[in-house]
Specification:
757 residues; alpha/beta; GIY-YIG endonuclease; 6 domains; seven-stranded parallel β-sheet; six-stranded parallel β-sheet; 32 strands
């Protein structure tokens, strides 16, 4: 008998500590890293073994210990590297070890109980297993009798098909499914005959679900530029030396960053290593998968939120067994198990979608950095508009800075025009499209070319208002206006999903003068469709709910079925379609004035990335920014794609106001159905922090708040924020985790917040 420390896998914030259990002689194989079933709080739950000892506790303590009920799976789930990374996540992001370990497990966190009964239906016992289901099929293998029959020619010369089947089976090292045998020209009838004669045996063989198992196009081998060659050589050297070096690959849009990724990944695979490639959006996976499949065939796996739980489980299995060498995925793919990780690449590393909005609020880039340190793998961060913290780390020498300053095909950056929408209003153009953009779209369509239009608001009208009293129709559960969706003829809340019928009168003054204001992608799509020769596709959250909707929309657009693609920010990232010569950005200044220190950075990145979709082929590109703030310096710099000037200016401002990378930040958010209670708790926490400052413990820490969140109520919960800045946030974390607030159920810690609002 021995004893194990178990982290309980329950979605309960207060379970910071681990619990000790006894392991009886019927489970001698259990060790650190195993998933197990344990009794807890009157029920059986899943847990993770994080420590093991043979040291016997005191008799009184041991008498109270319960036994581990069962093991989940047939091998440990966590290896030493995964467990070390989980512990780092728990410490850094101020969450429990169980919460951080849960991130590494695909699918639901609950376990499945199955009753085992005898032939009379009497319950014998319960069997516990994970909910993830393996897909199996009937498969065949040759037995000793079959080998003997083959060796001694028992079947004779007439049974040629049976002999051929046995000869094929004897060479196989594993069970072969009916499909595999069929592909080898062996019929199912032949196998049934051999089974009836006792020459083969059947068993169950696991089949791995793979939605991306397709016939791929042959790889196009492009000539690398000198800048690309240098980047590839440095990355390859780090892979070969197992040097956990971090590279910033900064390249203008269309400069061939993907080609560098491919060559570096190919080298890592040749070295017997596995590669993790992270992308910010599902919409980007389709094009990347095709490029990588052309190089690596079906030796790749893909992970994103549209996969089923069981598909994700199969992807995890492929990586941990070495069945696949390259994993392409979104944020959560950073937690995949690897047999031999050798290289991590994060494309568009500046994207805020790499930051988890829910607890634990991890950032995939930082988790990847930690996994690279633990495995000796280099990390490549790629972007045309790097995150300013990443850029500063490269400038200061912490990261190796690689530059791609030219497009490989010799094409130039697109020409950018800025249209002042105030003048459009003065000249009686009240539509969402400027005259210049309308003309450019019509001309582009007439010349057989394509355009992308970006509007970062979905729906038809952004709010509905009474023209008599000015009352907006708001969500009853959230402090936001409901958005009108014309297709469904309903109002939607984009925060909680609540829907409402379109009012015939104002709920406040009962006026019937209801008007729709603002423009979303749905309304813009309708206006675009009115232009001559224009055929429109829309890509936003509403049009991409289906599993492969992103891929299908992009396939149709790339094939030329439609010549204009309109959508939210997902249309502005990563797409490389040579026939796109025009990009229009509607409301280019819409995010500039948000009360957030990263508002300018996000705006610059989005505009630059959107502009970069134009002119990637052999024809020049044209970009039109529509704005009500045409003289704004950020928009002017984005038009020039002058990232370095923008970054230097923004870093100076960040330093003056003590924002990252010159400080670390921690945001505390209090949620409560009672607004007064939320405010009271927030004030209590601020008082606690101020008291510690008076005691000289947090002298270098700035505390701001409490203040309501930008959206003060979501899903009937009021939200208050407290913001802290310090050179080193560790003392603040230690104090809070040692305080009464540590296990407060409605208090959430957000380390390195992507937004302060």
């Amino acid at each position: 008998m021995f004893y194990v420390s178990v982290a309980i896998n329950l979605p309960v914030k207060s379970l910071f500590k681990q619990f000790t259990y006894k392991v009886t002689d019927d489970l001698p194989f259990l060790d650190v890293g195993w998933r197990v079933v344990v009794p807890f709080g009157g029920q059986l739950v899943e847990g993770f073994i994080v420590d093991k000892t043979t040291d016997k506790p005191e008799p009184k303590v041991e008498a109270k210990l319960k036994n581990v009920t069962a093991a989940l799976g047939d091998r440990p789930w966590f290896d030493a590297e995964m467990l070390a990374t989980a512990k780092w996540i728990g410490n850094y992001y101020m969450c429990s070890l169980a919460e951080s370990m849960r991130l590494f497990v695909p699918g639901k966190t609950s376990i499945k109980r199955q009753a085992i009964k005898d032939h009379n239906g009497k319950l014998l016992y319960y069997e516990y297993a994970e909910r993830l289901k393996e897909k199996t099929v009937i498969a065949y293998k040759i037995n000793d009798a079959g080998c003997d029959a083959l060796e001694n020619n028992i079947l004779g010369n007439r049974a040629k098909a049976q002999i051929a089947a046995l000869e094929y089976l004897v060479k196989a090292e594993e069970l072969l499914s009916v499909q595999e045998l069929s592909e080898a020209g062996i019929s199912n009838a032949t196998m049934r005959t051999l089974q009836s004669k006792g020459f083969v045996e059947t068993g169950l063989k696991r089949i791995l679900r793979n939605s991306y198992n397709r016939v791929q196009q042959p790889a196009e081998v492009l000539q690398l530029t000198d800048e690309q060659k240098q980047a590839v050589e440095l990355i390859n050297k780090a892979v070969e030396q197992q040097n956990p070096r971090t590279f910033l690959l900064q390249g203008i849009t269309g400069s061939g960053k993907t080609e560098v990724y491919l060559r570096a990944a190919a080298n890592a695979v040749e070295q017997g290593k596995q590669v993790l490639m992270l992308v910010p959006e599902i919409a980007l996976t389709a094009q990347l998968v095709k490029r990588f499949q052309a190089w690596f065939g079906n030796n790749i796996a893909v992970a994103h939120s549209k996969l089923s739980q069981n598909e994700r489980g199969d992807v995890w299995y492929r990586m941990r067994t070495g069945d696949a060498q390259v994993l392409i995925g979104v944020r959560s793919a950073v937690f995949a198990p690897f047999e031999n990780l050798g290289l991590v690449i994060i494309d568009e590393e500046h994207e805020s979608s790499y930051k988890q909005e829910e607890r634990p609020n991890y950032h995939a880039r930082d988790v990847a950095l930690q996994r690279c340190k633990n495995t000796g793998s280099p990390l490549v961060l790629g972007s045309a508009t790097p995150d300013l913290c990443t850029y500063y780390a490269a400038l200061s020498g912490k990261y190796t800075h690689l530059h791609l300053t030219h497009r490989p095909n010799g094409s130039q950056l697109p020409k950018v025009d800025i249209v002042d929408m105030r003048k459009e209003l003065q000249e009686k153009n009240y539509g969402v499209l400027s005259r210049k953009l309308q003309q450019a779209l019509v001309q582009t369509a007439a010349e057989g070319e394509q355009a992308i239009v970006l509007l970062n608001r979905r729906g038809h009208s952004t709010f509905v208002m009474c023209r008599d009293c000015g009352e907006s129709i708001v969500c009853p559960h959230c402090a936001v206006a409901l958005v009108y969706h014309k297709k469904e003829e309903r109002l939607f809340c984009h925060y909680c999903g609540n829907t409402a019928t379109i009012p015939t009168e104002c709920p406040k003054c009962h006026s019937r003068r209801i008007k729709y204001f603002g423009t979303g992608t749905e309304k813009a799509e309708a206006q675009l469709a009115e232009l001559p020769e224009v055929r429109v596709l829309r890509m936003d959250q509403d049009s991409t709910a289906a599993k492969f909707a992103h891929e299908e929309i992009l396939r149709r657009f790339a094939a030329g079925e439609r010549n204009v693609l309109i959508g939210t920010q997902m249309v502005a990232k990563g797409h490389d379609i040579p026939n796109v010569t025009l990009v229009g950005v509607l409301s280019a200044d819409s995010s500039l004035n948000l009360p957030d220190y990263r508002a300018t950075e996000r705006t610059f990145s989005l505009l630059t990335q959107a502009a970069g979709r134009a002119g990637r082929g052999d024809r020049p590109g044209h970009v039109i920014f529509q704005t009500y703030d045409a003289d704004n310096n950020i928009i002017q710099l984005a038009a020039k794609q002058d990232y370095d000037t923008f970054a230097r200016s923004e870093l100076m401002a960040r330093e003056d106001f003590f924002y990252p990378p010159f400080s670390q930040m921690l945001k505390l958010t209090i949620w409560d159905k009672d607004e007064a209670a939320a405010l009271a708790l927030a004030q209590k926490i601020v008082f606690f922090l101020q008291l510690k400052q008076q005691e000289g413990l947090l002298e270098d820490t700035m505390v701001a708040g409490p203040f309501p969140a930008l959206v003060a109520k979501v899903r009937d919960m009021f939200r208050y924020n407290i913001l802290m800045k310090a050179k080193n946030m560790d003392p603040v974390k230690e104090l809070l985790l040692a305080s009464e607030f540590k296990e407060q159920p409605n208090l959430y810690f957000d380390v390195d917040p992507a937004s302060v609002i």
